[in-house]
């Protein structure tokens, strides 16, 4: 299956705004508050930083969480009052943005690669951490020990959530699908339909049928439905390829109101897609460096992306002092709105 590539490359990105005081090393993950225009970024320089974004795009650094090793993941609580950050120091650290207090709330036997806040049974707010120790741990922040530990067959590489849906990708290419109404056991465990290593996951935000999107290091994307009656509608398509060069699909972000989504990769490009009509809505030119993470804000009016080395060529290709930035783009609704099949974007 392939997407219709009806749109042309956007002429310019020079209106994008760069956040002040960026990390000194690559960003591992971006996350917007679900309640206000605050953005958090975890980074390889051992810090997770938070900025407030003003109505005119001006940004103010507000706080930081200090790790003892690279910070690999970050997420906001559902009420927007707390930030959870995990890293190579094997610790999950939480900042209460209303009080400024910080505390360690999670621990693993190896680096924490991914984290999410989710709502569990009885509207309980849980923090979920996935680690290279091959476990996923569910934490009630009122308790010291995890309320549940799920054993993976291999290291946790990525996770995402939306509503009751939580999806975890592991190093053995397994996809672990949880219904958070019953977090003690996965709803379904499947092999990734993609043949190469899982790099990114994004859960549908607006859809009549629940599901998620998976990206691989091979520049391929899978639209995966989870209900039995919809499984046959799942499909994959190629993206982030230039001639014969194949690039990793590093980030997938779903728009909170339209249900369309973005992909970004090691080729330095961003694309907006509509899974329903199976077409690309917008293609942006390469920024000249890999894009490591992306995020939409709560109402979908701002799109953030981070520029930096993504380690896809190993440590030997890392160049100290290379470009690191977090950029903000004002979203044009016409670029991200769903379009009926066969309707091509105008120049």
TrEMBL record:
InterPro entries hit by this protein: WD40/YVTN_repeat-like_dom_sf, WD40_PAC1, WD40_repeat_CS, WD40_repeat_dom_sf, WD40_rpt
Organism: Spizellomyces punctatus (strain DAOM BR117)
GO biological processes: nuclear pore localization; poly(A)+ mRNA export from nucleus; post-transcriptional tethering of RNA polymerase II gene DNA at nuclear periphery; regulation of mRNA export from nucleus in response to heat stress; septin cytoskeleton organization
Transmembrane segments: none
Positions of WD repeats: 20-53, 105-149, 242-283
Keyword terms, alphabetized: Repeat, WD repeat
Family affiliation: Belongs to the WD repeat rae1 family.
The protein's name in its UniProt record: Uncharacterized protein
Gene Ontology CC terms: cytosol; nuclear periphery; nuclear pore
């Amino acid at each position: 299956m392939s997407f219709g590539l009806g749109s042309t490359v956007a002429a310019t990105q020079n209106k994008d705004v760069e956040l002040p005081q960026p990390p000194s090393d690559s960003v591992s993950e971006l996350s917007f508050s679900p309640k206000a225009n605050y953005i958090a970024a975890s980074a390889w320089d051992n810090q997770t930083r938070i900025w407030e974004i003003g109505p005119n795009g001006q940004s103010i650094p507000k706080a930081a969480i200090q790790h003892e090793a690279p910070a690999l993941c970050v997420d906001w609580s559902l009420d927007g009052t707390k930030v959870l950050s995990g890293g190579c120091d094997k610790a999950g650290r939480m900042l209460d943005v209303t009080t400024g207090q910080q505390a360690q709330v999670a621990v693993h036997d190896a680096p924490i690669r991914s984290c999410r806040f989710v709502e569990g049974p009885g509207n309980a707010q849980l923090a979920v951490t996935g680690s290279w120790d091959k476990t996923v741990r569910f934490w009630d922040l009122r308790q010291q020990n995890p309320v549940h530990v799920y054993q993976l067959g291999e290291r946790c590489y990525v996770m995402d959530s939306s509503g009751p849906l939580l999806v975890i990708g592991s190093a053995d290419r397994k996809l672990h699908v949880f219904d958070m109404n019953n977090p003690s056991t996965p709803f379904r465990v499947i092999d990734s339909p993609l043949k190469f290593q899982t790099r990114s996951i994004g859960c549908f935000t607006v859809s009549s049928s629940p599901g998620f999107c998976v990206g691989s290091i091979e520049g391929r994307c899978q639209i995966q439905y989870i209900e039995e009656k919809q499984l046959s509608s799942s499909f994959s398509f190629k993206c982030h390829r230039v001639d014969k060069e194949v690039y990793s699909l590093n980030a997938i972000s779903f728009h909170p109101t339209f249900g369309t989504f973005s992909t970004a990769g090691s080729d330095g490009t961003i694309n907006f897609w509509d899974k329903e009509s199976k077409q690309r809505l917008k293609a942006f030119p390469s920024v000249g460096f890999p894009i490591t993470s992306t995020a939409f804000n709560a109402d979908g009016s701002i799109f953030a992306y981070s520029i930096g080395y993504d380690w896809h060529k190993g440590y030997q290709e890392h160049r100290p002092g290379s470009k690191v930035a977090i950029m903000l783009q004002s979203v044009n609704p016409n670029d991200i709105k769903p379009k009926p099949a066969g309707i091509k974007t105008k120049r």
